[in-house]
Write a structure and sequence with these properties.
The chain starts with 6 loop residues before the first helix and ends with a helix. The chain contains 11 helices and 11 strands.
C-alpha cells in the first residue's frame, strides 16, 4: 500500500524543487573546499543541504542509481541526487516480489521499540515465551478489551504481550487519564485488567509516566487505531487477532 506523506514531509519535499540558484546560496554558506570534501566523503551531505530540516543520516542509497531514500517518522520518500525530484510511494523488487520500503519500515519499528526499556511497558507473558509482540492499546477500545480478555490464552500459546499506551482520543481526555492511572498504580498489570473491565482506579496520574512518549511513538508509526500489534520482526498488524490467528501469523516470521 502506498503511504501518504504527512504535511510536514510534503512541505519539505516541495522545497527541494527550489531554483538551483537558491540551492547554491545554501551551499555557499559553507567554504567550498570543506563542502567538497564533505560531499566526496558522503554524498548525502549535499542532498540534505537541499531539503530544509533533513539530516544526512536520514538518507540512504536505494537500489536505483542516483535515487536516495529519505526516512522521516513513519514516512519514506525517494529523492534524486540532484535535488530536483521526489517520489512518494513504495519501492518493489519485482523479481523477488518484495516491498523494500515496507522492509525498511519494519527495521525502523524494531529499532525504535528496542530503544524502549521494558520497565516502561506493562507485560503479560509465560515463563518461557516462544514469541514476543508489542501492542499499542487504549483502555477504552472495545477490541483492545477483547484482546486483553484472552490474555491468558495468548500466554498459554507462548505469546508474550508487551503493552504500550495509545489513548486514541489524545491528551487531556478521559482515556488518557485512565492510561496514566494504570501506570501510576502499585500493580500495573492488575490495574490494566481492571481498567479494561471498566472499573475505576484509585491511583492518580503521576509525573514521569511514559504515556505521552508512547503515544508520540504510535503517531510516528502512523497508527490508524488500536489495538496495533507489532511482531518481533517489525511487522505491523492493525487490529485484533484471536490467539490462534496471531500464533499462525507469528509462525510465519519465526522470530521471538
Amino acid at each position: 500500500m502506498i503511504s501518504k506523506l504527512s504535511s510536514v514531509l510534503l512541505l519539505s519535499l516541495m522545497s527541494i524543487a527550489l531554483p538551483y540558484a537558491a540551492q547554491a546560496q545554501t551551499a555557499a554558506a559553507q567554504p567550498a573546499p570543506a563542502q567538497q570534501a564533505a560531499v566526496k566523503a558522503d554524498p548525502r551531505v549535499e542532498i540534505a543541504s537541499r531539503i530544509p530540516g533533513v539530516k544526512p543520516e536520514e538518507l540512504r542509497a536505494s537500489p536505483i542509481p542516483n535515487i536516495y531514500e529519505m526516512f522521516r517518522g513513519s514516512e519514506i520518500a525517494y529523492v534524486t541526487t540532484d535535488g530536483k525530484y521526489a517520489i512518494s510511494g513504495d519501492l518493489f523488487d519485482i523479481a523477488k516480489n518484495d516491498d523494500l520500503t515496507e522492509d525498511h519500515r519494519r527495521e525502523n519499528r524494531v529499532k525504535r521499540l528496542d530503544a524502549i526499556p521494558e520497565s516502561d511497558m506493562v507485560i503479560f507473558g509465560p515463563k518461557e515465551p516462544r514469541y514476543t509482540v508489542t501492542v499499542f492499546t487504549d483502555v477504552d477500545c472495545a477490541y483492545c478489551r477483547r484482546l486483553h480478555s484472552q490474555i491468558m490464552e495468548y500466554n498459554r500459546l507462548g505469546i508474550r504481550v508487551r503493552y504500550l499506551s495509545y489513548p486514541r482520543s489524545g491528551p487531556n481526555t478521559e482515556s488518557w487519564t485512565k492510561a496514566e492511572e494504570v501506570w501510576c498504580s502499585d500493580n500495573r498489570n492488575d490495574a490494566l485488567t481492571r481498567a479494561k473491565l471498566g472499573q475505576a482506579l484509585k491511583a492518580k496520574p503521576c509525573a514521569n509516566n511514559p504515556v505521552a512518549r508512547e503515544y508520540a511513538l504510535g503517531q510516528d508509526f502512523g497508527l490508524q487505531g488500536t489495538p496495533a500489534i507489532v511482531t518481533g520482526n517489525g511487522e505491523m498488524i492493525s487490529g485484533y487477532l484471536a490467539p490462534a490467528e496471531l500464533l499462525q501469523e507469528l509462525k510465519k516470521t519465526q522470530r521471538q
